[in-house]
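Our preliminary data section would be incomplete without showing what the modeling component actually yields. Below, a chain of 186 amino acids is followed by its predicted structure, encoded as tokens that our downstream tools consume directly.
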Amino acid sequence: RGEICIILGATGGVGIAAIEIAKALGAKVIACGGDDNKLKGCIKKGADYVINYKKNILRNELTRINIKEINVVIDMIGGQYSLDSVKSLKWNGRLIIVGFASGTIPDIPANRLLLKNASAMGLYWGELAYRKPKEIKKDFLKLGILYKKKLIKPSNHKIFKLRNASNALNYLLERKNIGKIVLQVN
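Predicted structure:
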């Protein structure tokens, strides 16, 4: 509650979910992506601000919206965007590494973490669910409460029949989606 959360890769399925959850928990949310039309969808999902990081320099845009430091970074992108966000971390800030959609794994400068007493941690959801199913169950129960209170409203961008899975994959590769793509069995 009350923290500032920046989400790198906010227009994908995990990013959209992160926006809703962060807002439901009372954070101020900055959604970052590379497509202005998709970023409009992030506003609809609750983002307070959006930044197109293909058109703008992240730190300059944070200054423009009068945000000096970030409490939490949820990073699905990696690369330079990740490095820029580390430079903006607040004292005791947290960088949560979820993926590297940019194709570049960043070398996170340890001195930046040290100077801000900040932490960086990876989140490998599938393996975590396998190793700690009871913790994941608790998380799902919390999400269920947020859903019942109508604080999160999960949605699917597009549904494909299972027999059209290759079309769904191409759709993802072409980055046409904002949010989740679902494969329907029947």
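The first strand starts at residue 4 and ends at 8. The chain has a mean pLDDT of 92. Preliminary results of this kind motivate Aim 1 of the renewal.
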